[in-house]
Design a protein that fits this description.
Strand order of the largest sheet: 1-4-3-2-5-6
CATH topology of the largest domain: Nucleotidyltransferase, domain 5
CATH architecture of the largest domain: 2-Layer Sandwich
Helix content: 40-55%
Radius of gyration: 28 Å
Number of helices: 23
Distance between the termini: 44 Å
Strand content: 15-25%
DNA sequence: AAATGGGGCGCC
DNA sequence: AAAGGGCGCCCCATTT
């Protein structure tokens, strides 16, 4: 089932269609600098200015600004201006008008109201205007916070919903023209002016919900500029390496394809689940699981399960094919291709550069989503937050005098230590295996390390702080293994299986996992799983008592908040006629708080990093933000400055909150690429490999 | 040819 | 009656 479904009702009831708009409003084409100067002068005392750029397209590297739309928060709020910047025909005020407007914003300290602010800020920066010096409020944020279940609320949808305005469609402005540059400015005036007016009029609705979201709302707006800068800086990609991986995988894929076809007795498309089901039926391979459309499931988990019962060689080959095919199609091929197509690609060095877009108004819990923007080649069409992690293996560690570098895929020198897959010592750490290592394609600049810092056990620490669960709190305080401690308290003893059970439940509870799933996972009888879950709940009393209270409160109020005020409206789900949808509501009530609080904390850490490190002249040449994956932040750090920069990163991320007993802790990994990072302990200014127990 | 829905799978 | 939260992309099959 899709959540929210198509008939989803917005938390805020829709406004009645407005009779005012557009008849009571004025739309003015500003066709001379004199007029523009006069208009700005007349409005030099207003506090807010809503503005919006019309461009020839979405890509700031390839497209240009054609018009600036404006609406001032003055007495009537009813005039939308269109300032033509650069059109094919008709008046154009060019760069001068933009510069004048920027000066106006700076000099009179205007607060800018933008809708999807990073888009306009990015174009302004490319035109040479420093947007860090401008006070900006993104109206879209509060509109989204009004109901975060609604993803990326567009300006036109929001104007319709909150104001009852019907906006002109972009395609009707464009007509048969290629882009807005070809359209006559007077034809763009209404479209542009109403965008700015809608932004202005939406602002008062938006502020209400932003304010309600307290610190989380503030952070969402505060992070806009750094987030834009993070997106603008492309990541360095090792195209030669990925090209090698591409060849290797392609060969293996066609080998497997041949073997599978031979076993089937004829050629077929393995990627077609229909054809695959047909073949499996003929081979007598039934997974016993079906999709809701009635087709037999052929996913990896059910294949794995079937392999446990039926050791048919077809299954092994099929599973390997699926993994290889996924890796190739979703990651290796597109990464290689986009990096080669990138403007900064250098064939001799094999360096390519890719940008990744982060979406801040998509995931209802407040996490960032990561992916492409439709038809915008500025960003690569890859989800940076889902690049495969290679399997893990043991690496041996010994001190070395050799310089820090990647010696080979099996040997890496980092900060005076050699990490090798060969047994060179007794000391060992666990890290990614050299095989199938897509992340090795992400490399820092020469003379820089790839530094990865992630929040330690974030999804367990947060509920511990919120619920005060004593067993977990003690385990955290004493630095003990949380899963073993939980298992010990339940069973009175611990072994590998008992710890694994406890671990699955520990993580599963945040998602509202049922005992049926647990039974399935561990291949145990349902009643046994049920008994275990009962014991589990009885052991972690405080945790589950909080969960019950929290769910009741959520049902009563129809909304839950993260520890920092981010709302998730669940009324629609709680009141739905379908028990499945209602159950989804209760699971989301718990999960939104845990996942959302984690997202709030990462955003706060990023803002702190920006203010104290990344945007500070003193450190600018020595550290750069590379990427983030929910609870992990990655940096390029100059090797010679590592011991100076690393403590600052850690300090920014190990946040303490007065209402929480346990502070955030981080784990540090250092390497010469994202694929070969090794865990280090950092104490008293000294780095030592974090050895296996 | 482009859009859409479903199944599948990568990450946290 | 179903049974695990959040995301985006690939591929197939079908519709427009």
């Amino acid at each position: 089932m899709k959540f929210p479904s198509d008939d989803y009702e917005h938390y805020v009831p829709p406004a009645k269609p407005s009779k005012e708009f557009p008849d009571d409003f004025g739309f003015v084409l500003v066709d001379s600098m004199e007029d523009f100067i006069r208009i700005l002068k007349d409005n030099k005392d207003v506090d807010y200015v809503a503005w919006d750029l019309e461009t020839t397209g979405l890509n700031p590297e390839e497209n240009s600004i054609v018009a600036l739309a404006l609406a001032f928060h003055n007495k009537n709020n009813k005039v939308g201006y269109c300032v033509p910047i650069n059109f094919n025909k008709g008046p154009s005020l060019h760069y001068d008008a933009l510069a004048l407007f920027y000066k106006f914003l700076r000099k009179y300290k205007k607060r800018s109201l933008l809708y999807n602010a990073r888009f306009d800020m990015r174009f302004m920066e490319i035109y040479g205007f420093d947007m860090d010096k401008i006070s900006v409020y993104d109206v879209m944020l509060g509109i989204w916070l009004a109901d975060t279940n609604v993803k990326f609320p567009s300006l036109s949808a929001s104007a319709r919903h909150f104001l009852g305005w019907e906006m002109q469609e972009y395609d009707s402005v464009l007509g048969d023209d290629y882009n807005l540059w070809y359209v006559a400015p007077k034809e763009v005036t209404f479209y542009a002016g109403s965008d700015a007016l809608a932004t202005l009029h939406l602002a008062k609705h938006s502020f209400r919900y932003l304010k309600e979201a307290k610190l989380a709302g503030k952070i969402d707006n505060r992070i806009l500029y750094p987030l834009m800068k993070f997106e603008d800086d492309p990541l360095r990609i090792d195209v030669k390496y990925l090209g090698g991986l591409l060849d290797e995988y392609t060969n293996r894929q066609s080998e497997l394809e041949k073997e599978i076809h031979i076993m089937a007795g004829y050629d077929f498309n393995i990627n077609s689940s229909r054809q695959l089901v047909e073949v499996m039926m003929q081979l007598g391979l039934n997974t016993g699981k079906y999709t809701k459309t009635g087709q037999m499931q052929t996913s990896l988990p059910v294949l794995e399960k079937l392999e446990g019962q039926n050791n048919h060689p077809f299954l092994e080959k099929l599973m390997e094919y699926k993994r290889i095919n996924k890796s190739l199609g979703s990651y290796i091929k597109p990464l290689t291709q986009y990096a080669k197509e990138s403007k900064q690609y250098c064939e001799s060095t094999g360096d390519g550069y890719l940008r990744f877009a982060y979406h801040n108004t998509v995931a209802p819990t407040g996490r960032f989503a990561c992916g492409s923007e439709d038809k915008n080649s500025y960003f690569s069409k890859i989800n940076k937050q889902s690049i495969p992690k290679p399997s893990e293996r043991i690496w041996y560690v010994a001190p070395t005098d050799e310089p820090s570098e990647e010696v080979s895929l099996n040997e890496h020198n980092i900060e005076g230590y050699k990490f090798s897959t060969e047994r060179i010592s007794e000391d060992a750490v666990e890290a990614f295996s050299p095989e199938a290592n897509v992340r090795r394609g992400f490399i820092p600049y020469d003379d820089f390390y790839w530094v990865s810092v992630d929040f330690s056990k974030q999804e367990l620490l947060i509920p511990t702080n919120i619920t005060q669960e004593p067993i977990w709190k003690t385990a955290f305080k004493e630095g003990k293994d949380l899963h073993s401690e939980t298992a010990l308290k339940i069973f009175g003893e611990v072994d590998k299986h008992k710890r694994a059970l406890a671990k699955t439940c520990n993580f599963g509870l945040a998602y509202g996992m049922s005992h049926h799933t647990l039974a399935e996972r561990f291949d145990m009888p349902v009643n046994e799983a049920e008994k275990f879950v009962e014991d589990f709940k009885g052991t972690l009393k405080e945790l589950f008592s909080w969960m019950e209270r929290h769910k009741r409160k959520a049902k009563r109020e129809g909304v839950v908040y993260t520890s920092f005020g981010r709302p998730r409206r669940l009324k629609y789900y709680f009141e739905h006629e379908s028990p499945q949808v209602r159950a989804f509501g209760y699971r989301s009530a718990v999960n939104s708080v845990i996942q959302g609080t984690g997202a709030d904390i990462m955003k706060m850490a990023l803002v702190k990093l920006w203010d104290n490190l990344l945007n500070v002249d003193e450190y600018r040449d020595d550290v750069r933000f590379a990427s983030m994956v929910h609870d992990e932040a990655n940096f390029y750090v100059r090797k010679s400055k590592l011991l100076e920069i690393l403590p600052k990163i850690i300090d920014c991320m190990e946040l303490k909150f007065p209402q929480w007993e346990l502070p955030m802790e981080v784990d540090v990994e250092i390497g010469n690429s994202w694929g070969f990072c090794f865990p280090f302990d950092f104490k008293d200014g000294v780095l030592t490999p974090k050895l296996e127990d």
